[in-house]
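Listing S7. Sequence submitted for prediction.
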Amino acid sequence: ELVGDMVKIHVLLGCRPAELLAMKPKLIDRSGPVWIYSPSSHKNTWRGKSRRIAIGPKAQAILKCYLFGEWCFVSQTDSGKPERYLVSSYRRAITRACQRANVAPWTPGQLRHNAASLVRREFGLDSAQAVLGHSTANTTEIYAELDIAKAKEVALRIG
């Protein structure tokens, strides 16, 4: 399912929802083992900052099915005309899926926070900062939760 694939890719990339939904095949450099997606615009474009998003093998395997049109992620409207997903339509699709699955609703923005916490736990704060594209680690700390398992380990060792 398209929305399910979008969610999986979103978590794997740790990008902003708008960056995911603005993805176009022509903006992805597929020349190496890790693909690089360079959005044409993003949250900090106005500051003159570039954004490069690394796409690893797991995300590539899912994304390959969506590299044939102008936009990677499009839905069919009632008229049959393809229309690209926007943050609002992506959020609505997730909300509907949560209702169908009878689980607590969540938002696309939470996926970025989850990805940040996972990367920080596995690879450290610097890696989370790089994946999220933050200029400072202070910003990353807002997104990436401290790992309670580390605090428990310290408590066990020092009493």
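Caption to Listing S7: primary sequence and predicted structure tokens for the chain studied. The helical segments are 2-13, 17-21, 57-63, 87-101, 108-123, 125-132, 137-143, 148-158. DSSP finds eight helices and five strands in the chain.
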